[in-house]
Amino acid sequence: MMRRHFWRWWPNKTKERPDAPEQLPRKSGSEERRKLLKALSAMASGIALFSYTRRSEAKDASDLPAPKRALTGRDEAGRSVFKSFEVTPKVVEIDSNPGLTFYELYMTDGVPRLTGLEPDPMLTGTKAFPGPGGTMFRLISYPPKRPDGWKPPPGVTFDSALRELSEKVPGMGDHFERGAPGMHTSDTIDYGIVVRGEMTLELDDGQKVHLRQGDCVVQNGTRHRWRNPLPEPCLMAFVSVGGKRG
Length: 246
What we know:
The chain is α+β, with helices and mostly antiparallel strands. Helices cover 19% and strands 27% of the residues.
């Protein structure tokens, strides 16, 4: 359909034939350029719509390409090099909440030494949040808004889901409240940005903001929860910096 629409706007280049009917006067170059620009605009709109439709059809993180991480360092001569450019070795999928995926990218404890020769910390595991002065960088893919009547996988309970979360991201489930599903608090400042999709952030007393792609959050150790309002996954990036309660 997009191809038909595109050619509809393309200037007519029919070759002249001896028996062809008399042609209308040739249009000026500016008129042809305007037609060409309209055609290209229509084609670009069609491509954008196709891309958005494909994204909207995604059911969870597994339907989208996994994000890659470029990790830099230094070689023995002190020159900057790429140590890797691939999906992080620590990808955590939560089976009790299909579509919830943690891409654990990097973490530090205390003040980094910046030798450039440090091993990849994600090869040894991960944790929920950093201690004072530490940092954690992760991407989280949140599943789409659940349809009415959705039920978790057979055998899954709220407590078993939190246990799985704490087993796979050590200690994470301990930060969540049993009496208010989704609500959690950590002793960190969290810098967050919506990479793809949309997200609702809820604080105490039902206060909410609706975040769209590119919107940012500074979470000052406050009680909160996330809710995906759309029928497509939401990808968010977080940098957590460990602090202490005043």
